[in-house]
Specification:
- By secondary structure, this protein is an all-beta fold.
- It has 5 domains: about 1-85, Immunoglobulins (Immunoglobulin-like); about 95-195, Immunoglobulin-like (Sandwich); about 205-305, Immunoglobulins (Immunoglobulin-like), CATH 2.60.40.10; about 315-405, Immunoglobulins (Immunoglobulin-like, Sandwich); about 420-510, Sandwich (Immunoglobulin-like), CATH 2.60.40.10.
- Helix content is about 0%, strand content about 40%.
- It has 2 helices and 38 strands.
- Strand 17 (about 240-250) and strand 18 (about 255-260) form a beta hairpin.
- It is rod-shaped, with a radius of gyration of 54 Å.
- The model has no long low-confidence stretch (mean pLDDT about 90).
């Protein structure tokens, strides 16, 4: 006699095999079923026409003994033996959701799973949990019954029942069931786990670049930071991805990048393009994730949100000497978020740059406190092209515009101006000069200046421009007012530039000199 099916907790269908001799006796009429609830009361038989019967409305949680006898025209036969022990209820429900087995912990030599009791015990107390495991995913599961219902974890190791070997990196399939007096529940879904530990702690991430977001200009207000890291040891389970955390100054870290659930272990870099404030310090940590769990956070990388400064501007030549050029400039408009540490000058002769455009020479760092500098050590009287950069903790910024200048001295020792004899007119005057006493390079030209008449002012009005005429050493000045006093000065240009204007000034009263007397003088008297 067996239970053929359970329709509900309190409805059970049973069946039995009829004795062949009785079954072949055409006089056999029926069966009598005895259901004893073990209460001690008399059991009334149930008449049954076929070798099966649905028992309904049983009491949940009760146990019964069931026996059966056959009846024919002669009478009732003996009761069946042994009797059927019948229990009400169902097998426990399938272990799903939070009841289903899941990873508790894992090492390179063991796996510990955990679970919770099924949501329904079938109306009868649980008898045991059953773990099924298949090491190496061979297709064959080994059954391990667990009778201590107070323990809801189990560790698979090399010494576990059914395990012949257990290697780091091996895959193991698990499923579970629970049992009660009725039977075993349906199997849970298969859980596949690695014999592995969480990944090793990643090394400190590295700063690939800090840059300006707006068109790449170093003076842009928005800053981007690119962070790279390297993959740590996976410890038996392939790394699924990474998490990147960022903190601003002393604020708590925030998760800003997460590919740990997308199986993109190939992504080992991330660029932060928003939320970065120039001049602040940002701190980064990375974490690796595999099927076992999360690694320790890496050590912290601190990144100042700074970029190189913008270019200095208004680079101008103040003067030059033999082997030197003096320059002035205005500091950059943007420091890049860090203090300017100084300036560097890049220079080279024009001839060298023509032959090899990248052969710039570099000065040492010039103090940030100055805005002019004499670049020395140059080859005298050669033409140099010069540019400069500002420098901060991030390095050199953009180049300024370049200037060109000969590393030579301007002319000195200018001779005094003179009025050309016979070159006076009513409103004109001839002025002459000499080549300068000192000029390290060839003289290129001259300029002559005059002041306003009778003003005693410095001569500043240009009356002759021979800047490109080196051979003419005189000029005719017209438009003068007779009997008025004028001051004259001049300057000289060579390849290094213009000299200072000559001093002392030539002071001249405009107009012709008096004519000589009409007759020679005669003696008027003697004494």
């Amino acid at each position: 006699m067996v239970v053929s099916r359970r329709l509900s907790e309190t409805s059970v269908e049973i069946e039995w095999a009829a004795d062949v001799a009785i079954a072949n006796n055409p006089l056999t009429s029926s069966y009598r079923l005895y259901l004893d609830d073990l209460s001690g009361n008399t059991v009334a038989p149930i008449a049954v026409d076929t070798p099966q019967q649905l028992l309904k409305d049983l009491v949940l949680g009760h146990s019964y003994q069931v026996s059966v006898s056959a009846v024919n025209a002669i009478g009732e036969g003996a009761k069946s033996a042994p009797v059927l022990a019948l229990h009400t209820g169902l097998a426990p429900s399938k272990m799903t959701g939070t009841s289903a087995p899941s990873l508790d912990s894992s090492t390179s030599t063991s796996i510990t799973i955990k679970w919770l009791p099924p949501s329904y015990n079938g109306g009868a107390s649980l008898a045991e949990y059953v773990v099924y495991h298949d090491v190496g995913r061979t297709g064959t599961f080994h059954r391990v019954p667990l009778t201590d219902l107070t323990v809801t974890t189990w560790t698979l190791s090399s010494s576990s029942p059914g395990v012949t070997s257990l290697a780091t990196g091996q895959l193991v399939d698990f499923y579970m069931a629970s049992t009660n007096v009725i039977g075993e529940s349906l199997a849970s879904d298969i859980l596949t786990l690695y014999v592995a530990a969480v990944p090793s702690q990643p090394s400190t991430p590295s700063e690939t670049s800090v840059f300006s977001v707006q068109n790449g200009a170093s003076y842009a207000s928005e800053i981007g930071i690119k962070i790279d890291w390297v993959s740590p040891a996976d410890n038996g389970a392939p790394i699924k991805g990474y998490k990147l955390f960022m903190a601003e100054e002393q604020a708590p870290s925030q998760l800003i990048f997460d590919v740990s659930s997308s199986s993109r272990a190939d992504i080992l870099t991330y660029t932060v393009r928003e939320g970065i404030t120039k001049s602040l310090v940002y701190k980064f940590k990375v974490q690796a994730v595999n099927a076992v769990g999360e690694s320790l956070l890496s050590a912290e990388l601190a990144v100042p949100a700074t970029v190189p400064p913008s270019a200095p501007f208004n680079l101008t030549v103040l003067g030059s000497g033999s082997g030197s050029v003096t320059l002035e400039w205005s500091p950059p408009l943007e420091t890049g978020g860090a203090a300017i540490l100084g300036y560097r000058f890049y220079y080279q002769t024009q001839s060298a740059l023509t032959a090899a455009p990248s052969t710039w020479l570099t000065s040492s760092l010039v103090s940030a406190a100055v805005d002019n500098f004499a670049l020395s050590g140059l080859t005298a009287d050669l033409l140099y092209r010069i540019k400069m950069v500002a420098n901060n903790a991030r390095g050199n910024g953009d180049y300024s515009s370049s200037v060109s200048q000969y590393a030579g001295a301007v002319p000195t020792q200018l001779a005094a101006l003179a009025v050309i004899a016979g070159a006076r007119g009513q409103s004109s005057l001839g002025i002459s000069w000499s080549a300068p006493g000192t000029s390290t390079t060839a003289v290129l030209g001259y300029q002559l200046y005059i002041n306003e008449p009778d003003s005693n002012a410095i001569p500043t009005r240009l009356v002759y421009d021979g800047a490109a005429i080196s051979t003419l050493l005189q000029a005719k000045v017209t438009g003068l007012v007779s009997q008025r006093t004028y001051w004259f000065s001049y300057r000289v240009r060579n390849r290094a530039g213009w000299s200072s204007t000559s001093t002392p000034y030539l002071k001249v009263v405009a107009g012709p000199l008096p004519s000589p007397p009409a007759a020679a003088p005669v003696q008027v008297s003697t004494s």
